[in-house]
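Pasting as-is:
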Amino acid sequence: MYLWEMEVRRHWEIPIFRHYHTSLRQRGITTYCWEQLFEDDRLCVAMGLYIAAEYCRGEEGAWLVDTWIPMLQRALTAWDDLNCTG
C-alpha cells in the first residue's frame, strides 16, 4: 500500500486495514490484534525502503530511475506518516 499515491494511501490505508481486521475477526481469527496488524504494516514500509534502495544501487538499476525514485519518495512519506522511527 505504501506504493500508492500519497493522498490515496492516506485516505484509504486505515479504512482498508480496519475492514481487513474486522473480516479476520468475523472469520474466527481473534488472536491477530489491531496493534500487530499496524506494526506489520510499518514493517512493510521499512521493507519498501530497502527494495527502493536496492533499485538505486549501481548501474544496473539506472534504467529504472523513473520507477525507483517515486517508489522511494512514497515509501519515505509512508515512513514519516506512520512514525516508523519510534
